[in-house]
């Protein structure tokens, strides 16, 4: 099969398309013919650099790529045979099932968490293998490009919203409003009647329940209050830019929750200046969300079966052979939102020319 292989850490040019052996499913595993794989700044760009915490778990040569979609084409011992031929979304992590966190039902905090594309070869390839519990069958009318994007951001976005404890009529601050996870969160908030005050360095405007403000404006605090109609009940911050945090933090409502995920997309990890006195005196909560539980993943895919979809034209598709170029453009801010790589064998939508 063809795969994009990382032989050494470094620049995007280290990603090279070549022939590698097609995976064979071990007991309890499936092989998926990949239709699309989400390109993740955190998992992929940071890991490729060799300077990211995830890089320490990688053994070269390596194939990146976690959350993806496709069709099950092989099943190992112990896997139901009727899964073969099913269109699926692939969640890019799996838990050990026996640590204290897993036994208590908090499997998102699993001590033995393993990531597809980090601890094992991933999905920048025509085929990839993973434990059976990583795959979720998807509706026949769901575009597989969208399914890959949803796998990457849907369950964790839903987890963030649950931790924020939002109620109908609330407003939230959402830095990095053009990012992939932010766009999924905006779509999910429409089901909750929540107003989103997005912050961005590159885009401003309005759309349905979303107002996007320039994160660099001098009067950002006043602009947030005006757009929200008062102090926001929460912030979901997946960027954690210190200067932006210091300007939205003072205008959050008393008792507000600040939820953080994925703020490790750059090798230079951000450090926030959090005033402890304010956390105490205003009853604020700062919450980290590393991942999502299996239960939330099940809940999210039920929402999809019930009709939840990303906004139209949210996902950009690129040939697998353009992986290095896509990495460069994401790092430079030319590409934002959901970007998926499409292997040459993808058949569920018109094939992207190589």
TrEMBL record:
GO CC field: cytoplasm
EC number: 1.1.1.1
Keyword Amino-acid biosynthesis: no
GO molecular function annotation: alcohol dehydrogenase (NAD+) activity; metal ion binding
Organism domain of life: Bacteria
UniProt catalytic activity: a secondary alcohol + NAD(+) = a ketone + NADH + H(+); a primary alcohol + NAD(+) = an aldehyde + NADH + H(+)
Signal peptide region: none
Keywords carried by this UniProt record: Metal-binding, Oxidoreductase, Zinc
SMART domains in alphabetical order: PKS_ER
Keyword Zinc tagged: yes
CC cofactor: Zn(2+)
All residue ranges annotated as the Enoyl reductase (ER) domain in the record: 10-341
Family affiliation: Belongs to the zinc-containing alcohol dehydrogenase family.
Protein name: alcohol dehydrogenase
């Amino acid at each position: 099969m063809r795969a994009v292989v990382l032989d050494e850490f470094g620049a995007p040019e280290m990603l090279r398309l070549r022939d590698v052996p097609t995976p064979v499913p071990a007991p309890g595993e499936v092989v998926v013919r990949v239709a699309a794989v989400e390109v993740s700044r955190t998992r992929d760009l940071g890991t490729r650099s060799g300077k990211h915490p995830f890089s320490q778990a990688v053994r070269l040569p390596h194939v990146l790529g976690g959350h993806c979609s496709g069709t099950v084409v092989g099943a190992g011992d112990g896997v139901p045979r009727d899964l073969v031929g099913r269109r699926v979304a692939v969640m890019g992590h799996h838990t050990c099932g026996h640590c204290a966190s897993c036994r208590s039902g908090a499997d998102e905090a699993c001590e033995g968490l393993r990531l597809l594309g980090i601890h094992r070869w991933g999905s920048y390839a025509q085929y990839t293998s993973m434990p059976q519990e990583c795959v979720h069958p998807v509706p026949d009318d769901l575009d597989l490009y969208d399914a890959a994007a949803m796998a990457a951001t849907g369950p964790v976005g839903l987890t963030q919203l649950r931790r924020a404890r939002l109620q109908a009529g609330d407003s939230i601050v959402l830095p990095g409003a053009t990012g992939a996870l932010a766009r999924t969160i905006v779509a999910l908030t429409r089901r909750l009647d929540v107003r989103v005050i997005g912050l961005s360095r590159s885009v401003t405007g309005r759309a349905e329940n979303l107002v996007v403000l320039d994160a660099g404006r001098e009067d950002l605090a006043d602009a947030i209050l005006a757009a929200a109609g008062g102090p926001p009940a929460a912030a979901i911050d997946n960027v954690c830019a210190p200067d932006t945090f210091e300007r939205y933090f003072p205008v959050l409502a008393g008792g507000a929750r600040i939820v953080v995920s994925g703020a490790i997309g750059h090798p230079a990890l951000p450090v926030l200046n959090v005033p402890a006195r304010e956390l105490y005196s205003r009853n604020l909560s700062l919450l980290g969300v590393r991942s999502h539980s299996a239960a939330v993943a099940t809940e999210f895919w039920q929402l999809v079966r019930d009709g939840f979809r990303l906004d139209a034209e949210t996902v950009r598709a690129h040939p697998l052979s353009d992986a290095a170029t896509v990495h460069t453009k994401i790092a430079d801010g030319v590409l934002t939102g959901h970007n998926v790589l499409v292997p040459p064998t993808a058949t569920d939508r018109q094939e992207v020319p190589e």
